[in-house]
What we know:
Order of helices and strands: HHHEHEHEHHEEEHEHHHEEHEHE
Structural class: alpha/beta
Shape: globular
Number of helices: 13
Oligomer: single chain
Amino acid sequence: xxxxxxxxxxxSFNMIFSRFAMIYSFFFFFLMIRRPPRxxxxxxxxxxxxxxxxxxxxxxxxxxxxxxxxxxxxSWHATMYNLxxxxxxxxxxxxxxxxxxxxxxxxxxxxxxxxxxRERYGKPPDEVHNFVSLRGGGVQGGTIDTVLNEIAxxxxxxxxxxxxxxxxxxxPNKGSTRLxxxxxxxxxxxxxxxxxxxxxxxxxxxxVLRSNGRMGYSPNLVYAETQVFGSLLKASLFxxxxxxxxILLYFRPTRWxxxxxxxxxxxxxxxxxxxxKGSWKMLFVALSGxxxxxxxxxxxxxxxxxxxxxxLAETAMSLSQDVDQLSSxxxxxxxxxxxxxxxxxxxxxxxxxKIEANAVxxxxxxxxxxx
Length: 371
């Protein structure tokens, strides 16, 4: 039987992880162990005024003007859908929240994995597992400010979401998705690495659920997303950092101390050199029985600054410059549902993302190269 303090520790983590998935920002902080210098950029790569944007979304939905942002809050996305989906469908406005690192790569990668799997095997996958590897980089003070707002104002945000449900349209249900949440470190035979909960999964996994619901690329999909490490020691240490960071931020006194003396403020962030040295990789494994397809997204530049900027910009260009290539109608939707293949092609052409797909035999041998 677990000692009482272990039970309390695990219970606290589960509660914190489910409500505050965006605390990934502070994972980067504990790696840097210092307050970063003020960025040379003119603004943060994440918006701290996310909850001041509702009038803009409303205006776009009513006027038929397409919109995208880099918010990472699933609650914001859900509330905007509840309030403005019907208006956007009527006017043809494509409203695309979460168009940064959270959650374009997870969304586009899952869409591509399901598409290639169906093309290769003539049926949809039953599962897609996303394994994320982060290499260096940093975090913007604006992102942290948004996270702190989410934590401090959680009751009000939840209340706004509940109130928006009145008269809200049902979610599209072309495809059903079960989200498989990781809670503890484990070894994965699929990627041959140690895995822990990926803190951005709280934003990315509901996004994939929405995409499959609207697009129906798999009638019954299981989706999982984790962060991977080469050794159990590294995985355990990072997992412990997430636990401690989450607990410190959950309680008001320690959250105030960290915000006042430790964490970067809006306008602060990593240097250009740090951003350019960073990189990340996602491996998507689509499965059905012994049949498997692997999709990899290998990115140059750190996730929170360079990749987020690129994803947002290419989404905006897809919505504004490639309208004649889009088959989607209006609505509050995900990136893949709004601009899927067009955005995929733009990301590939940007030079910042190497995106490949391979079919794999049951024994794990690669059957075909690039798709």
